[in-house]
């Protein structure tokens, strides 16, 4: 093993030896440790920078969708019955839509651990039966304040009659960390007590628990809508574009700094005895 490591060090040193050169009274002579560290750090920092840059580009695309929706108004919420093929959810993400229907309060629930300012509460998620169809869509009606204890749930009202909902398409993430079991069974009993508080949004689980067809897309109720909403200070993902770009430039700066440090540390002033040796070669 020791022989192999010695051989590796010797071969690596022989690779970087040709890089050495003299510049006036200095010699560029990189160390093995500095060479390997720089070789690892620079690609790593660049990769982190590109990751942050790509996140910024994604949020720029989201912002473009928001701006387009403001100019052109809300689109009609897509119905499965009107589609000749499966809906491409990616094409509808973040778009502004409108739909008319009646709320079904029996199967609404509270999404737990939602923060507004410095206070913890719930988001109220209510299914809406779309007018003249058998299809439903979940509507996030906004945030309400929780009580001091979780056993004492807050009370809230749900408007009756036909509602015109305007809002933004919301596709809940399936990448969820939770202490709850994520196992979804097709044999869930329909007559079991309805779970009013959910720790995370799970469309697949919800679809199995209710006796009607629900869209894979949900809607975040627009702050200007009068369709029974609560506090709706929705976080716009595009607001962090500047932050992501700042992080990207920071990582690129680290890569440049690593290169400059490597160059600086690899130069050393030639001592008289070394100068004599170099001149004889």
Query: What gyration radius follows from the Cα positions, in whole Å?
Result: 30 Å
Q: Strand order across the biggest sheet?
A: 4-6-7-11-8
Structural class label: alpha/beta
Shape: elongated
pLDDT average, as an integer? 80
Strand content: 15-25%
Pattern of helices and strands: HEEHEEEEEEEHEEHEH
- Number of discrete helical segments: 5
Instruction: Give the N-to-C terminal Cα separation.
Output: 35 Å
Q: Helix proportion of residues, in percent?
A: 25-40%
How many individual β-strands? 12
Stretches with pLDDT under 50, minimum 5 residues: 176-188
Q: How is the biggest beta sheet arranged?
A: 5 strands, mixed, barrel
Produce the secondary structure layout.
Elements lengths: L1 H15 L4 E3 L2 E3 L3 H41 L2 E2 L19 E8 L5 E8 L2 E12 L4 E11 L16 E9 L26 E2 L4 H7 L3 E2 L3 E4 L19 H26 E3 L2 H9 L1
Parallel strand pairs: 3-4, 5-9, 7-10, 7-11
Antiparallel strand pairs: 1-2, 2-12, 4-6, 4-8, 5-6, 6-7, 8-11
């Amino acid at each position: 093993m020791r022989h192999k490591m010695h051989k590796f060090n010797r071969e690596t040193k022989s690779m970087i030896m040709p890089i050495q050169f003299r510049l006036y009274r200095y010699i560029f002579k990189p160390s093995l440790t500095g060479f390997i560290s720089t070789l690892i750090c620079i690609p790593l920092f660049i990769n982190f920078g590109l990751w942050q840059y790509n996140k910024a580009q994604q949020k720029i695309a989201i912002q473009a969708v928001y701006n387009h929706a403001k100019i052109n108004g809300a689109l009609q919420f897509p119905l499965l019955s009107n589609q000749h093929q499966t809906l491409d959810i990616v094409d509808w993400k973040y778009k502004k839509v409108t739909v008319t229907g009646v709320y079904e309060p029996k199967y609404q629930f509270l999404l737990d651990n939602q923060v507004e300012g410095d206070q913890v509460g719930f988001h109220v998620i209510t299914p809406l039966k779309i007018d003249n169809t058998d299809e439903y869509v979940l509507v996030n009606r906004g945030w309400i304040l929780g009580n001091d204890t979780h056993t004492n749930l807050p009370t809230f009202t749900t408007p009756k009659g036909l509602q015109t909902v305007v809002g933004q398409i919301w596709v809940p993430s399936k990448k969820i960390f939770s202490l709850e079991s994520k196992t979804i069974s097709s044999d869930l009993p329909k007559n079991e007590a309805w779970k009013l508080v959910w720790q995370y949004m799970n469309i697949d689980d919800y679809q199995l628990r209710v006796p009607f067809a629900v869209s894979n897309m949900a809607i975040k109720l627009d702050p200007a809508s009068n369709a029974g909403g609560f506090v709706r200070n929705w976080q716009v993902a595009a607001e962090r574009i500047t932050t992501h770009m700042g992080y990207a430039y920071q990582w690129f700066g680290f890569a440049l700094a690593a290169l400059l440090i490597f160059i600086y540390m690899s130069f050393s002033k030639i001592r008289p005895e070394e100068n004599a040796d170099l001149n004889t070669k």
